[in-house]
Design goal:
Blueprint: H1 6-12, H2 23-36, H3 49-56, H4 60-72, E1 76-79, E2 83-86, H5 106-109, H6 114-119, H7 146-158, H8 174-188, E3 197-200, H9 203-214, E4 220-224, H10 229-237, E5 241-245, E6 247-248, E7 251-252, H11 254-260, E8 266-269, H12 283-296, E9 299-303, E10 328-333, E11 345-348, H13 354-363, H14 370-381, H15 384-410, E12 415-417, E13 425-430, H16 436-445, E14 451-452, E15 465-469, H17 475-490
Bound molecules: pyridoxal-5'-phosphate.
Length: 494
């Protein structure tokens, strides 16, 4: 008697309902693969169409059509009255395949560098995929002037000058670097020449370039804890000793770092709006940090990822604006102020480093598009960028207010939010005893995309919290969603 394929088959077939590939095609492909790689042996009986349809939660007609198809292709045969079977006599050994020992994952079986192996554990992949409400760092994409931006993109590609369709300029578009220099002067109090600006495909590429140009294996990097995950993982990947520095109410705790950590080569900080806690670094701390960096001959990364959005008063100028000694590498991104898919950012580097950065940008892959650079330069020159930021600042303040109100109404017993006067997210403390990772997963199942504070932490934090992004959620939906958050959190064990 043929063995029924049920268990093995059902565990190996996954249907992705969000995929653009139709379900019948996904199922066909899975069955072909299982037959070719020997997971389904010759003569083995396939589950009945009813059973498979039920287990996968798809229609029986779909399964029947798929079985008909793989029978027509010769992968299976139908025996009247007894069911569908994997075809006999298929020489599956003849098919090239990746041999994976059952007990090992594919990555473990292939020879890759130690560097690449160290990357397997990174939590920085959370930003990929579908966006659900409250994911931190997502702008109001529904309010982005997409048509207008399309016009700028189209002009950038149809201009007479065809140079713009090639690799562009060594440090990135000069026109864009001039616009960024002007913006940094007006908005961040920085006096920089376009020569010191290197265009990147986002802050992340800037971190990679910084680590590549400035770090030796084993160097110490002081890194805010909790802090930005993807930047931290880059430093670790480059072989640095990433030393956690806690945050106090003035920002990165400099005294603690001096007392407890080895001398740093590099210091990573988000002074305008600490990621994720939201603290603004005090002026005193800024000056002390700059002094210390100069004495220690250390470089500082100032990640100014969302400083455009401050809801009360004027922002403190950038740390880089106080930096008379050129120790600060200032990173900016358009992922928050425009949208992440444009992959555009920049790093302002000390004069002495500008050429090394341009060389590294060239050899490590010039990841930004010259066409997008040109479009952005014009968008800024015409005042569109400042106009968009102004609108978003107002909108995000309104969304923050609605979220705070909704949390007070629907979640007073389960979440205690920190007030925030800036940015795109807030931190909300969970009740004692509730694990933030568990809360995050339970909410994700309910379609709510908060992040657990623990994801940002190198060392365990005293309290558990959720990081809730408000910028990307329509005000009209916030109350209903927050009510749902409360319902889910009340079901969790303490
Ligand atoms: C703290 C911080 N820095 C920088 C970035 C921007 O990354 P990128 O410019 O590569 O999109 C993010 C985005 O998630 C962030 O949260």
């Amino acid at each position: 008697m043929s063995k029924l394929a049920g268990g093995a088959l059902l565990h190996s077939v996954t249907i992705d309902r969000d995929s653009d590939v139709p379900i019948y095609r996904q199922l066909e492909a899975s069955l072909r693969r299982l037959i070719l790689d020997g997971s389904l042996a010759a003569g083995q009986k396939l589950p009945s169409t009813r059973e498979l349809a039920q287990d996968l939660g798809i229609s029986r007609i779909t399964v029947t059509n798929v079985y008909d198809q793989i029978i027509a292709e010769g992968y299976a045969t139908a025996r009247t009255g007894s069911g569908t079977f994997v075809a006999d006599g298929l020489d599956t050994e003849a098919f090239p395949r990746i041999r994976t020992p059952k007990h090992q994952s594919r990555t473990a079986d292939v020879e890759i560098s130690d560097r690449a192996r160290a990357l397997t554990g990174t939590k920085a992949a959370a930003r990929y995929g579908k966006i659900d409400p409250f994911r931190p760092g997502v702008p109001a994409l529904d309010h982005f002037p997409a048509k207008l931006w399309g016009k700028y993109l189209s002009e950038a590609i149809t201009q007479e000058d065809r140079h713009g369709m090639s690799y562009g300029e060594f440090k990135g578009s000069l026109a864009l670097r001039h616009e960024i220099a002007r913006h940094l002067r007006d908005a961040r109090g920085m006096k920089v020449e376009a020569d010191r600006i290197i265009i990147t495909s986002g802050a992340q590429q800037a971190f990679v370039l910084i680590a590549f140009v400035l770090l030796e294996r084993g160097d110490t990097v002081w890194y805010e804890d909790p802090g930005h995950v993807a930047g931290r993982d880059v430093m670790q990947f480059m072989g640095a000793n990433v030393a956690p520095v806690p945050i106090d109410d003035e920002g990165l705790d400099l005294d603690h770092a001096i007392r407890t950590q080895p001398r740093p080569s590099l210091i990573f900080t988000t002074p305008s709006h600490q990621q994720p806690l939201g603290t603004t670094m005090s002026l005193g701390r800024r000056l002390a940090l700059l002094n210390h960096a100069q004495d220690a001959s250390a470089w500082i990364i100032e990640d100014d990822y969302d400083s455009e959005f401050r809801f009360r008063g004027r922002p403190l100028p950038a740390l880089a604006a106080l930096d008379g000694a050129e120790r600060v590498l200032y990173t900016g991104t358009f992922s928050k102020s425009m949208f992440a898919a444009m992959r555009l950012g920049y790093v302002v580097v000390p004069t002495a480093l500008a050429d090394s950065f341009a060389q590294a940008r060239n050899l490590l892959g010039q990841n930004s598009s010259t066409v997008v650079e040109e479009a952005m330069a014009r968008f800024m020159k015409d005042g569109r960028f400042v106009e968009h930021i102004r609108k978003m600042r107002k909108l995000y303040r309104a969304r923050r207010d609605v979220l705070m109100q909704a949390l007070a109404t629907h979640c007073p017993d389960v979440l205690t939010p920190e007030t925030t006067d800036a940015g795109m997210h807030l931190v909300a403390w969970l009740r004692d005893g509730v694990d933030d990772e568990i809360a995050h997963r339970a909410l994700l199942e309910a379609g709510i995309d908060s992040l657990p504070l623990s994801v940002y932490c190198q060392t365990p934090f005293a309290r558990q919290a959720l990081v809730l992004g408000f910028s990307g959620v329509d005000e009209a939906d916030i109350s209903r969603l927050v009510r749902r958050v409360g319902e889910v959190l009340r079901t969790l064990p303490r």
